[in-house]
Structures are given as structure tokens and as C-alpha cells.
Amino acid sequence: MPENFPTLRVCALYPDLMNIYADRGNLLVLERRCAWRGIDFELSSSGLGEELDGEAHELFYIGGGQDRDQRLCAEDLIENKRAGLKRAADRDAVVLGVCGGYQLLGHSYILGGEEIEGVGLLDVTTVREVGPRLIGNVAIEVSLGDGYGAPHTEVLAGFENHGGRTHLAGGQAALGRVLAGRGNDGHSRLEGARSHNTIGTYLHGPLLPKNVWFADWLIARALGPQAPPLAPLDDRLEQQTHLSARRAAGV
Amino acid sequence: MSRTMAAKLALARAVGALSRLRGGGATSAPGKVLLRVEPRAIATLASRLKRGSVVISATNGKTTTAAMAAGVLQGASVNLVHNQAGANMAGGIATTLLDAARAHGAIDGELGLFEVDELWLASLAAQLHPRVIVLGNLFRDQLDRYGELDTIAESWERVLAAGEARLVANADDPLIADLAREKDALFFGVEDDTLALAGMAHAADAKHCRRCGAPYVFDAIYLGHLGHYHCPSCGQQRPVPSVTASEVRLEGVRSARFLLRTPSGEAEVSLALPGLYNVYNALAAAALASALEIPIETIAAGLSGTRPAFGRAETVKVSIGATASQPAHARELQILLIKNPAGANEVLRTLALEPGEHDLLGVLNDQIADGRDVSWIWDADFELLAGRVRRFTCSGSRAADLATRLKYAGIDPARIEVREELSGALRDAAQASPQESAPLYALPTYTAMLALRELLVARGEASSAWA
Fold first, then answer.
1. How close B205 gets to chain A, by Cα (Å)?
2. Chain A contact for B214, CB < 8 A?
3. Would B141 disulfide with which of B21, B340, B386, B398, CB 3.0-4.6 Å?
4. Does the interface predicted TM-score (ipTM) exceed 0.90?
């Protein structure tokens, strides 16, 4: 019954600057999967200099950018969007940060002698250490099981490419356990971070096309517990894509 | 030539011959051996070239630009040493020089013409001491291998600061113009308002002024982030190019025409290559030739005479075995390399100029030379093909990723086929059309293009790329 679904209102933060790894693929997957189910979908953006209304959207997305662009966005995030994002997280909206976006959801990113302040929604800090970037196919095991349709344990597969090493504070949950690849810091075997509906991950760019089960989980979480369950879709091609990404990671 | 140098050349040649015998990729192996025994070989051999060297770097179109420049220069009777097989890192360039080296310190050629990988430009320019450096464009390409565009731009900036080379640069690419502005560069660019796009592509880069950080305002966008732009904050402008293309006419997947202007005059150019991206390649080659003081008639004739480099808009005939519904026949296959969003978008735009529904074979690999990360397909505008696909066969190690991309681009999944293995995919795709006159378009990534050509050579339908 499409009429029972509220509109899914998605806000992309800095879509022209924080989009280095084809982040628009994630937005396209959310949009299409809502459309195929008759769920109204509304995409807006919030750029440099714009205040963010934490009440106006159910899902907030921030992707990855070049260092220089990320710095510009970090300043603006603190100035114009921190309060809105905090409000969004408090009212259980979904906040998804990917790659650079993940780093900005933490407390800080230390880059050379410089400390870039983040919004602090996740209890993590990131440091650019000397040493190679962590690059390659990656697969992680996540347990989201909480009645939103996702199985108890699932695999997210994708690609990571980051210079920063992210460290979780004692009480901060990771998004998942690394099955193959490098993860947050290359040695803890942990990947990403999750606090309720706020999620950060290094699985960059088009993560959702490779893991449509996760796209659906995000849509369901964003629409909230009152919305009816999502109808299944014909996901044969998406299933093959998921398996091809897992195979590339060796899982 | 010293005895030791002669011995080292002979050793590297022997290893190369061995590698060729075994059928291996012999375009860089001998050069790698040579560099191991003689690390200064590139500088030493290049210094034998009487007229010096010129290098061409860009993320897109290096091979085609160099092929066009070769056509022009050969038309001017310049004897070239040219890495035409596209091996464009140190090993490939050393191999090219090794092949041309002769006894007693001689070399078979006057001028070195080298396409150079964008991240190798710094180290190779220091060895080749080029007279001219051509910087074509900087698009997102294989970020897993090369890191951010800013990193490449910074390494290029150091090359330009160090060098004594004349710079030839694309005025329409703000990232390159910002590097070249203070260097007395010879700029080239497109001057044709009828080509301007309605908006910027999703994968567009360099939208912010490098000097003050304000967003550039584009008065016209031609291709990706190439166009006419200015900074409203600090007043930075697109440099005025002295080599231009105007009155551009794009003629589907086969050809393009434009009016070329250089400081020495103007001439009509008719390219046997399609798309605005090849007009840019031609402009880069024309500007290079202009910097070398080649007459404009020779430039126009050389450009018009250039045939496609292998895998770049190359056309071959494939034979199709008899089936219950059709007798055996031959079908035209056009190979259009796609390797990053900017290049893919131009190929897709060019395909969209052809009327009707198309049969396509997309081959997406994720080997190192393709980029292990296939994220980029989500930055390419496959939406341009929505409603224009009769059948799209997806092949390669990441065939399913391509199929999913097409589905989300609005192509009917019933028209999408996934077949990873290439020879079966080619057979299926070629057989799909009921009208044998309609060509099949193959869109392979780099290693997929090599594999496809190898398959066609084995079937006797294409000649060897290295012949």
C-alpha cells in the first residue's frame, strides 16, 4: 500500500564537493528502490554556506572528497550544519557518512600538523599517518538484526581508499568486522562505526549498488517503525553484483 | 658508444626477443631490463635525438593525440621515435628508444614523440628534457592507482617549475590552465557555442578556482569540466587560446569536422574519428605541431589522415556462424575504449548521436591496468542510453556491476544479459541483431580491449596491434 508510506526525504551534503568516488550511485539506488515500490522520494542538497534543518529530512548523506574540498566542507559543517545534524541524529533520522564523510562525523581528523574538527556524532578520531593509503577490495561482516528486515548477520562488500586511520573510543561500536581488506586502521580488524542510526564507513562511493540489502535497511530505518515493511524486488542482477564484489575481496 | 653501453643494449634486446618469442607483452619488458642494467639509459639514448623530444600527457586521449601528432609530423618528413603501442611508463619509453638505438652512438630517428603516463611525467621529463610538453586534460581516472587529481596537478606543477620546455596546454581545462597561466604557454581550446551542454556532468572536477577557492562560473561547458569559465571572485579567466576549433560538426560514431585556426592561418579539418573528445585530441596535436612550426596545411592534412588507434573507435568485421534463423554472415564491430567517466561519457554521447536502438557489448574488467575499483561506472552517464538499447551484453570480471549500473540508468533489465566469459559474450552479442547492417558496439575497459583484440586476432578478424 504505497499510500501508507511517508515520503522519504533525503538530503545530500555538499554533493558537488564530496562525491569523489561516484557517491551519486548511492543516491540513485535509494531513489530507484523507493520509486519501484511507489514510495515518494525527495532529494535535496545542502552546500557551502547553507544552514541544515535537522527536521526536514529522514536521511542525510555525506560522501568523500579530496583533502582540499574536505577541509572547506569541515569548516562549513561546524559553522552551518552541526546543530542540524545533531538534531537529526536525536530524532533517529539516518545519517550516513562514507569515506571522507565518515571522518567528518567523528571528533577530529589530524592531517600533518593540522587538526580538522568534525561534528562528533561518532566517538571516533582519525589521523593521517605516514605510510601507504589503505586501498583495495574489502568485505565486512555486520550484525544489524533489529527487526528491519536485515538478516542477523550480513556481508557488506566494496572498495576502500583512504589515507586516514580511524580509531574508535572505548564505547563506540564498529559497523562491522573485517573479513577481507584493511578497515578503520589496517590492524584492528574493525570497519566503520555505528551509533544507532548514525553510520560511518570506508566502503566508499557506490556501496549501496553492491549491497542493496543495506540500501533497503537504510530506507526502512529512515521511514521509521510505523511504515509498512518494504516489498521485495527482483534483485537478481543486484545479487550477482554483490557476489562479484565479495569475490573481488576474496570472500 | 662505449662498449659497456653496447653490451647493455644487446642484453636488453636479447631478453626482449625471448619475451616476444614467448608471446609476452614485449612493449616494456626489454626497456625494464635495460633500465636495470643502465638506469640512465633513457637520458643517454634520448640525447642522441638531433631534434630532441616532445611529450604528451593527459588522463584521456594520450594515445590518440600522439597518433595524430605522428601523422602530422610524418607528413612534414620528420623521422620519429614514437611509443605508438601506448606503453607510456619508463619501461615502455626505454623499449622504444632501445628499438631505435643503432651502433656507434647513433639512433634511427630525429625527434622523440612520447605519450607519458600522468604520474610518470615528472620522472620522465627529468630524463627526456623535452622541448615541448603537451598537457591535454585532467579527469578522474583510476583513483585507486593515482590518488587524487590534486596530487597529479601538484606533481605537474613541479615539472613545469623545473623545466625549460615550451608548454602546450588546454585552455578549456581550468585545472591545467591554472598550472600553465604563468608559463607563456601555447593554449588551445574550443570556440563554438553551439556545442555547449545544458549542465555539468556528475563526474566533473575542478569546478573551483585554484587561486581563491571560489566556484568557477561556466559560460559554456563542452565536455566534463572543459569549457569557458571565469572566477567571479578574483577575476581569473580562461586564457585566450591561439589554436582553436570552431564550426565543429560531430558526425555520429564515425567522424567529425571543424575549422582549425592557428597563429599562421586557418584550415578545414575532417577527422576519421568521432566525438568532441577527438576534436580536443586533434587540437592538442595541432597546437604541438604549431609549436614546432609545422605549416597549417601539413597539420590539417596529417589530422585528416589519422586512422583510429587500436581500440579507439576502431572498426573490424566479425563473422557470425549460421543459426536456425540466419545464414553465416559478417557484422561490423566498432570498439570504443571506455576507462574512466569522462572518456565513457564522450563515447556514450557520441553513441547517442546514432539513430535507433543499439546492440552493445560492455566489457568491465578490474585488473590493475583497468583500476581495481569499478566505482567509476556510477559516475558515467549510462542514462544517455536509456531507451536506445536493443540488447546490452555485459562481460568481463565485473560484468554484473555493469549490468546493475545499466538497470539503475533506466535500461530495461530484460534487454541486459550477463556473460562474464568474453568469447561467448561476443558470440551472443554479435548474433543478437536481426539486421546485419547494424553494427555491434563494444565498450571495453583497457585490459578487456586487449583481450577482445586478442580474440579477434585469433579468429583472423583483426591484425595484430603490435605489427
1. 9
2. no
3. B340
4. yes
The answer to whether residue B223 is domain-embedded is yes
B413 contacts on A by Cβ (under 8 Å): 234, 237
Confidence of residue B17 (pLDDT cuts 50, 70, 90): confident
Q: B260, B288, B304 — which closes off a domain?
A: B304
A99 is catalytic: yes
Residues B241 and B261 in one domain: yes
Q: Taking 80 as the threshold, does the pLDDT of residue B149 lie above it?
A: no
In residues, how long is chain B?
A: 467
Model pLDDT for residues B38-50, shown as the tens digit of each residue? 999 999 999 999 9
User: Across the interface, which of A66, A68, A237 has its CB nearest the CB of B400?
Assistant: A237
> Is B149 within 8 Å of chain A by CB?
yes
* For B373, nearest residue in chain A (alpha carbons): A159
CA distances to A34, A41, A223, A233, B302 from A9, in Å: 11, 6, 9, 21, 56
From chain B, the residues in CB contact with A19 under 8 A are 202
Given the residues A11, A34, A73, A99, the one annotated as active site: A99
The domain total for chain B is: 2
Question: For residue A5, what is the DSSP state?
Answer: S
| Site of grid cell 642494467 | B37
Alpha-carbon distance A167 to nearest alpha carbon in chain B (angstroms): 23
Q: How far apart are CA A173 and CA B391, in angstroms?
A: 46
| CA nearest to B368 within chain A | A136
Identify whether A34 is a catalytic site residue.
no
Gap between the Cα atoms of A250 and A66, Å rounded: 28
3-state SS class at A251: coil
The cell for B57 is 600527457
At B450, which CATH number? 3.90.190.20
Q: Dump pLDDT digits (tens) for B264-284.
A: 999 999 999 999 999 999 999
Q: Using CB atoms and an 8 Å cut-off, which of residues 17-76 of chain A contact chain B? A: 19-22, 24-25, 28-29, 32, 66-69, 72
Q: How far apart are the first and last CA of chain B?
A: 30
Amino acid identity, residue B159?
V
**In contact, B286 and B299? CB cutoff 8 Å:** yes
Residues B116 and B206 occupy one common structural domain: yes
Within 8 A of B400 by CB-CB distance, chain A residues are 237, 240-241, 243-244
- Give the whole-angstrom CA distance, residue B119 versus residue B116: 8
Domain A2-249 has CATH 3.30.565.10: no
Q: Does A176 touch chain B (CB under 8 A)?
A: no
What is the radius of gyration, based on Cα positions, of chain A?
A: 17
Nearest to A63 by CA among A125, A133, A15: A15
Torsion angle, alpha carbons of B399, B402, B404, B405, to 10: 180
**Confidence (pLDDT) at B140:** 75
Does residue A202 surpass a pLDDT of 90?
Answer: yes
Q: Give yes or no: residues B68 and B199 share one domain.
A: yes
The per-residue pLDDT for A79 is: 95
CA angle A175, A176, A179 (to 5 degrees): 155
Residue A35 belongs to what H/E stretch?
Answer: helix A24-35
- Is B35 within the bounds of a domain? no
CB atoms within 10 A of CB A190: 20
* CB interface of B with A, residues 358-387, below 8 Å: 366, 372-379
> What per-residue string of b and e applies to B53-75 under the rule 16 or more CB within 10 Å gives b?
bbbbbbbbbbbbbbbbbbbbbbb
